[in-house]
């Protein structure tokens, strides 16, 4: 298939690089991007709502002062290098504002040309019969949220999943949530207001990706920022409930006010709204004021509907896929049943900016007919089937496997996956060989050198903070 008109949903890193690559490397008739918020940047855009603004908001889970854990070379889109942060070499990791500025500069020509529409909230993407494309319904908040419809030949979903919070199924947690005593890490905005309180923090360690709130670093950052002001008032620790120690790739400084404890099996609430946590090892922790939950997010494209065998529209997520994932994706990109629907950066990965660049380049060439992919749905489903089996076989050999060992996390498979995609790209378009990053064992080892660098930068930031105070 060769679509003429393509709509990209989402104005974060994945959507922006998809817009550029489909425009420049696909040479389609018209490519446009829509974003529901009032600016681009995705998670890296920390909006500042104006007084009296009645438009709906979709806040980023980012917080003031956030510093990333990926070096600029792994954040650089092809043909658009990321500037070196001014705090280099002591702190070479870009801040929230520096990353936003980079993405805003990248988007600027497309904003000026009208190829990006802001304040456009997608409410449904419906497959049309007989290969006629997609009916896209949206609320236009530029004109008071008026509902409108358009038809597009192909659709790219390139969004974060921060609307879809993951909550553990721990006994008693619902009661805490009802009283706003259990708070998801999405809403962390700083330690102010929690001084002197006892905090329990339930953490599922997760790797860094474009959904940065899931990163183990962010959770450790949260604890460190919280503990300093709290410890000035009382000696109670922050209890960090985890199933296993953090992976070496999630560096954090030692903190005497953080106490690691076993997983929580039950919460109970006393008459004074003080929380008691029962741990898996039988330990009881009482007089807890607040529970923070750092168990991340899950992909859930609820607005996408495909035609079923009865020619009736049905949610892409019906029936709910087990294990949870965006189902039926060939190469984590093309919908197997209708390859005019694509997803970019639908999985967690170590280097989402460069993976998004590679995936959307592959997609542009595939839709242009220069990369050959399987021509039947059955053949396109083989990728998902094989990946699910490989992961299940691997997990079966492990004791207490991490929640990261799932279909929706590239993990150690990222190198193999990216090498194969790039081979397709270079075969179709040899001039892109030196434009896109090289994935190799040497590059993976080089990426892993970021972790000790990050630890050193945390030490430097701590020392700078002590000097200022």
Quaternary class: single chain
Q: Structural class, judged by helices and strands? A: alpha/beta
State the end-to-end CA separation.
62 Å
- If you average the pLDDT, what whole number results? 89
The counted number of beta strands is 20
Number of helices: 10
> Order of helices and strands, N to C?
EHEHEEEEEHEEHEEEEEEEEEEEHHHHHH
Uncertain stretches: 203-233
For the biggest β-sheet, the strand order reads 3-2-1-7-20
| Alpha-carbon Rg, integer | 23 Å
List keywords for this structure.
469 residues, alpha/beta, 10 helices, 19% strand, globular
Summarize the structure.
The chain is α/β, with parallel strands linked by helices.
Write the layout of secondary structure elements.
Elements: E1 5-9, H1 13-24, E2 30-34, H2 96-112, E3 116-117, E4 120-127, E5 134-140, E6 146-152, E7 154-157, H3 173-178, E8 182-184, E9 199-203, H4 216-231, E10 238-241, E11 258-261, E12 264-269, E13 275-279, E14 284-288, E15 290-294, E16 304-307, E17 313-315, E18 329-330, E19 334-335, E20 341-343, H5 352-367, H6 377-380, H7 382-395, H8 414-428, H9 441-448, H10 450-468
Parallel strand pairs: 1-2, 1-7, 2-3, 4-16, 7-20, 8-15, 9-10, 9-15, 10-11
Antiparallel strand pairs: 4-5, 5-6, 12-13, 13-14, 16-17, 18-19
Helix pairs in contact: 1-5, 5-8
């Amino acid at each position: 298939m060769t679509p003429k008109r393509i709509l990209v949903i989402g104005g974060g890193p994945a959507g922006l690089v998809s817009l550029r690559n489909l425009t420049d490397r696909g040479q389609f008739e018209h490519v446009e991007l829509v974003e529901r918020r009032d600016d681009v940047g995705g998670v890296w855009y920390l909006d500042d709502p104006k007084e009296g603004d009645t438009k709906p908001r979709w806040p980023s889970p980012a917080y003031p002062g956030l510093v990333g854990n990926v070096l600029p070379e792994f954040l650089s889109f092809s043909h658009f290098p990321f500037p070196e942060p001014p705090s280099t070499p002591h702190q070479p990791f870009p801040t929230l504002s520096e990353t936003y500025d980079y993405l805003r500069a990248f988007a600027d020509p497309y904003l000026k040309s009208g190829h990006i529409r802001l304040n456009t909230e997608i409410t449904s993407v419906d497959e049309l019969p007989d290969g006629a494309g997609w009916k896209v319904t949206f609320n236009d908040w530029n004109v008071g949220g008026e509902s409108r419809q358009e038809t597009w030949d192909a659709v790219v979903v390139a969004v974060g999943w921060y609307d879809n919070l993951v909550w553990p199924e721990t006994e008693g947690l619902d009661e805490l949530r009802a009283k706003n005593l259990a708070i998801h890490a999405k809403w962390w905005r700083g330690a102010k207001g929690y001084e002197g309180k006892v905090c329990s923090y339930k953490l599922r360690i997760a790797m860094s990706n474009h959904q940065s709130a899931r990163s183990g670093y962010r959770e450790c950052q949260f604890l460190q920022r919280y503990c300093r002001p709290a410890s000035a008032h009382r000696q109670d620790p922050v209890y960090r409930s985890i199933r296993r120690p953090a992976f070496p790739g999630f560096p954090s400084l030692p903190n005497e006010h953080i106490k690691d404890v076993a997983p929580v099996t039950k919460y109970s609430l006393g008459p004074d709204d003080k929380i008691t946590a029962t741990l898996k090892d039988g330990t009881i922790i009482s007089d807890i004021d607040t529970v923070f939950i750092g168990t991340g997010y899950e992909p859930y494209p609820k607005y996408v509907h495909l035609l079923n065998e009865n020619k009736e529209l049905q949610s892409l997520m019906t029936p709910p896929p087990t294990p949870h994932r965006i189902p039926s994706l060939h190469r984590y990109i093309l919908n197997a049943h209708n390859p005019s629907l694509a997803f970019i950066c639908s999985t967690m990965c170590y280097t989402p900016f460069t993976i998004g660049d590679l995936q959307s380049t592959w997609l542009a060439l595939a839709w242009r007919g220069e990369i050959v992919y399987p021509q039947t749905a059955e053949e396109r489903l083989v990728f998902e089937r094989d990946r699910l089996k490989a992961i299940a076989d691997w997990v079966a050999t492990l004791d207490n496997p991490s929640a990261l060992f799932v279909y929706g996390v590239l993990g150690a498979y990222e190198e193999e996956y990216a090498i194969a995609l790039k081979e397709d790209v270079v075969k179709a378009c040899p001039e892109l060989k030196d434009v896109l990053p090289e994935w190799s064992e040497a590059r993976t080892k080089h990426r892993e050198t970021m972790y000790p660098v990050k630890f050193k930068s945390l030490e430097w930031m701590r020392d700078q903070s002590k000097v200022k105070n």
